[in-house]
Specification:
The chain has one domain: UDP N-Acetylglucosamine Acyltransferase, domain 1 (3 Solenoid), CATH 2.160.10.10. 14% of the residues lie in helices and 35% in strands. The chain has one helix and 20 strands. The strands form two sheets. Strands 1, 2, 4, 6, 8, 9, 11, 12, 14, 15, 17 and 18 form a twelve-stranded parallel sheet that branches. The protein has an eight-stranded mixed sheet with strand order 3-5-7-10-13-16-19-20. A hairpin with a 4-residue loop joins strand 19 and strand 20. It is globular. It comes from Croceicoccus marinus. It holds the Pfam family Hexapep. InterPro entries: Hexapep, LbH_gamma_CA-like, Transf_Hexapept/Carb_Anhydrase, Trimer_LpxA-like_sf. This is Gamma carbonic anhydrase family protein.
């Protein structure tokens, strides 16, 4: 990827690796030990900063406008630090803050939510808009957590999961449209 409107920074011997089919919108900053998978999309003005640990973003995952993804360095009691691992088919809403956590396949983080160090969001787990998931919480598969601090609300029904899957496909297609529009 070589576009003047996207900043790619190598640091501490690590250069971001972005799959050729991934979409990175203008205004993004991608720094350090980052891997972005096939058909993923990183939307306008996001910061993905892996200067002190690793960030992995899976296939077809989208990180929406203005979001920040970071990680944390090793500390006493946490010798590996907190990398950020985002699985395949994950939806992350606008202006989210994702930090040193794991989001498993088909997870969802709502608009403006904060997810802190050591959190694990299980497969198809959902964090509601504006929620703050404090350190080391475990959100189970298909669970919906809301509030500040976030707490378990209920299990997600099949129609909500189907809607999330449709959202993933929408963002893959929308990214292709934006890429084409930017090339014109």
């Amino acid at each position: 990827m070589n576009r003047p409107d996207v900043t790619i920074v190598s640091i501490n011997g690590h250069t971001p690796r972005i799959h050729p089919s991934a979409f990175v919108a203008p205004g993004c900053r991608i720094i350090g030990d980052v891997e972005i998978g096939p058909d993923a999309s990183i939307w306008y003005n996001c910061v993905i900063r892996a200067d002190v640990n690793a960030i992995r973003i899976g296939a077809r995952t989208n990180i929406q406008d203005g979001s920040v993804v970071h990680c944390d360095s090793p500390k006493p009691g946490q010798p590996d630090g907190w990398p950020t691992i985002i699985g395949d088919d994950v939806l992350i809403g606008h202006m989210a803050m994702i930090h040193g956590c794991i989001i498993e396949r088909a997870g969802f983080v709502g608009l403006g939510a904060i997810v802190m160090n050591g959190v694990v969001i299980g497969e198809q787990g959902m964090v509601g808009a504006g929620a703050m998931v404090t350190e080391n919480k475990r959100i189970g598969p298909r669970e919906l957590w809301v509030g500040r601090p976030a707490r378990f609300l209920r299990e997600l029904p099949d129609d909500a999961l189907a809607g999330m899957a449709e959202g993933v496909e929408h963002y893959v297609e929308n990214a292709r449209s934006h890429l084409q529009a930017l090339a014109e």
